[in-house]
Write a structure and sequence with these properties.
188 residues, mainly beta, Jelly Rolls, 2 helices, 39% strand, binds dtdp-4-keto-L-rhamnose, dTDP-4-dehydrorhamnose 3,5-epimerase, RmlC-like
Length: 188
């Protein structure tokens, strides 16, 4: 597995090794030991799976507040997304900065979204399926979001008129969003 760092410390892209042959391929899409050897230690306890039927579906930017903050390990099993992670830890030297990465069924890349970061994804092709592991359970009371098009973030999404959920149409800007993440706090 290749581990590729990004400009945001803690946000890494993982590239599992796929073994191709005349049948197709085989890969270990998740191996706790391999990740631990790369210094990545998380006890994932829930798997999530979503289908976006159309290209241009944008989900996000989402996070769960402390004490129900989530680490996410995100990948795509059909289609492709432009996946975005934003540092929203107050006092962080990279507060408000984001990274965008293409995850696709073809490139098999995964992105690790640490606690204290908001996450969003925009589909690049129809029938895109996102799979991700999380290290705490869903908690609707702690679920929060930030507007995908917050001008303070200036995210270079691949489209300007995305298909959004009702909730994501009404998300606040980062400056107004409820956020109890503190840089250097207990976000392990
Ligand atoms: C996230 C989640 C949602 N749900 C339910 C709530 C709702 O009825 C339905 C759809 O939820 P949402 O509209 O929040 O789904 P979605 O917009 O796909 O939300 C996801 O977006 C991406 C970007 C993330 O990072 C995820 O953590 C998650 O927030 O599924 C669960 O039952 N369990 C869960 O873990």
């Amino acid at each position: 597995m290749k581990v590729i760092s990004t400009k945001l410390p803690g946000v890494v892209v993982l590239e599992p090794k796929a073994h191709g042959d005349h049948r197709g391929f085989f890969m270990e899409s998740y191996n706790q030991q391999t990740l631990a050897n790369a210094g990545i230690h998380h006890a994932f306890i829930q798997d999530n799976h979503s289908l976006s039927v159309e290209a241009g579906v944008l989900r996000g930017l989402h996070y769960q507040l402390e004490p129900k903050a989530l680490t996410k390990l995100v990948r795509v099993v059909s289609g492709a997304v432009y996946d975005v992670v934003v540092d929203i830890r107050k006092g962080s030297p990279t507060f408000g900065e984001w990274v965008g990465v293409i995850l696709s069924a073809d490139n098999k890349r995964q992105i690790l979204v640490p606690k204290g970061f908001a996450h969003g994804a925009c589909t690049l092709v129809p029938n895109t399926q996102l799979l991700y592991k999380v290290d705490d359970y869903y908690s609707p009371e702690h679920d929060r979001g930030i507007a995908w098009d917050d001008p303070d973030l200036g995210i270079a999404w691949p489209i300007s008129q995305p298909i959004l959920s009702e909730r994501d149409r009404q998300q606040p800007a980062l400056a107004q969003a409820e956020n109890n993440f503190v840089y250097g706090g207990d976000l392990s």
